[in-house]
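[Meeting: bench + compute handoff]

Bench side (C.D.) handed over the final construct sequence. Compute side (W.E.) agreed to return the predicted structure before the next meeting so the bench team could plan truncations. Sequence as handed over:
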Amino acid sequence: MFDGFTNPGLLAGLALASVPLLIHLFNRQRHKPMRWAAMRFVIAAQKRTRRRVQLENWLLLLLRVAGVFLLALAISRPFVGADGALSALTETRRDVVLVLDASASTGYREDVETVFDRIRERASELLREFDGARGDRVRLVVAADTPRLLSWTDPRKAAMIVESLERPEDESLDLEAALAEVLRYAEEDAAGSGQSALEVRLLTDFQARSFLGDDGHPVEIDETLDALDGLGVRVLVEDLGPVLPTPPNLSIDAIDILGPVVGAGSPVEVRVRVANHSEDDKRGVRVALELDGERRPTQIVDLPARGAGEAVFPVIFRTAGDHALRASLEGDRLAADDVRSHVARVPEATSVLVVNGSPAGDIDRDAVGYLMAVLEPATSDDLGIGGASAPFLPREVTTSALENGEVDLAAYSVIWLADVSSLSDNVVAQLEEHVAAGHALIVSLGPRPQIEAYERNLHRADGTGLLPVTLGPIVSVASRRENYYRAAEFDALHPALRFFDDERWRPLFSEMPVYEFVSTTADPTARVLARLDDVDRSPLLVERPYDRGRVFVWTTTISPQWTLLPASPRSLVPFVHELVRAAARTTEEPLNLAPRESFAAVVDGFPRRVELIGPDGEGRKTIEGEAQELPGGRWRLPVVEADLLARAGAYRLECEGTDDVLVAVRLDAAEGDLERLTPEALDALHRALSPYDPSAAASRDAGGIGQKGELWRGLALAALIALIAESLWGAWIGYRRRIA
């Protein structure tokens, strides 16, 4: 009779219909016959009216049972389909999920309105069809990278929210997440019946990558769509996008700094990549770059159809700290991807303490001589530029100076132990505390280190020691004239060795001769960055985190005694520079984020007040919460919540008591590709997805999808009539029996 119930759990209330019958039966059992003389007159009169009284009582009982039964049935809200036998008695209640595509691509402007404006207007038009008083319910979902449910009941409230939406998000549409949210609603709706009557409408611009992904293959939504199809739900997708199948658009895809930023005053090149997403060549495209608000000379690039070009700007960061780069194009129909921000952090000069374990007058035998020559600050004349600060501030000390407490370790970001034979327990404890606070230790071995002392003081079997390796015996080639070891493999993605990933520079590291080294076994938590080509593939460079800091071990020397590395400045200089920079690299949160990605900065000094200033200086928000103290006198600021970083652009964290922090929020570069999916291609993706053309719709519910023919109002009215009739009939019976 019924196809299902909206509230199937309330069907248990039907059992209450038995209450009047049970009361009647219990009352019958309480009457006990007693014979007395005058009763014969009553019995004679009762026999004459018994049939009429029984009919009156049964009718009264029937009205009471019917009233309770119909009321319980009405509360459970049964419904039937359009073809049901009771369909003529039903009323249609629409349960709708309205999904609005609010991705950045919907900001594309045609004439005076954007695609997002059309989506809002169409949503308002649909919402006017719904009637909350009739029981229609609308779930309004705004979908971008994360679907957000803004309204879940009253259509009028949903309409007011739609009117308040001003612009799309600076995010991409995650169709999988949006459909997963729809599936959750459908499963709730189908509870107890296995079928959902939800009507799902997706208003979108038909951007191909939303359905096919960046690789051109369908996004992984088949499982979700299969589940929706199993519940009888079809997603009607309405195209409100541009007219052209590939709307013309230019976008800034990336801002890259070519080469390392070694310090303030050093020149670098900034590359701005511009993409052409149209089918025609674009010539004379103007690209501008701003550094901390100061505009650089505009450059001109030519872009092939469906291709990209680059503009390279020479830049000098005058001071250390955070700097905001902002690249822009002349505005086109999609403004969101015409501007892109990037934050570059220029490091302070890295202070390096070099501990010389084998001082010698002859540089060829001094492990630190070559190292200091590489790290010593160069003059401006040496660098060929004026005003450039030195990237490293090295200081050389002996082991005895370290043991005697003549050195303040806190003043150095990197400590390099070169050919140090052994260290006292006191110095080892100081090094452990220093590295744990976020600094770095580099150990280069050689003939002097005492393996037993290193194993006792610097390495522990439980992994709590500084050394990330277990030391073994020294390995030597049989003849230096006939053979040598070399780096058979190395991690070219690691910052310490990334320079040698270029094919031009790879031989400078991979062909570097090594004649002797200390055999080692890396701990399970260590990362081997380079291995030699001996039989055992012995580690050459090993790294391991130590609390907030890091430890590196170079298993040969940094002097010519065991390797020819110092004899080749083209190998030694980039190796030492990149290794020290990688060691000094801190572990703060990244400075360039995706939209709605939370952020917690680390600063030097206690911040008394933290405020977030939005892009272009718009908006100021106090960041609530307590800063967290870290080792080494550093502080982690309160988390900047994701919703405060929704818009693309450069944000500034103003901190009283310490330097400001910059962070850039950047749009997904692929969002600028506006190539559109055809309705035929969408229809072929899955049978639960259907393109919808409102001009061809035959009825307000898109062909009868999702209608619920409910009977609850009629049942409630019948229950009320039954209860009123029971009251009137009971009163009539009582009146007749009183006057009889």
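W.E. noted at the follow-up: Residues 4-86+714-739 form one domain. C.D. will use this when planning the next construct.
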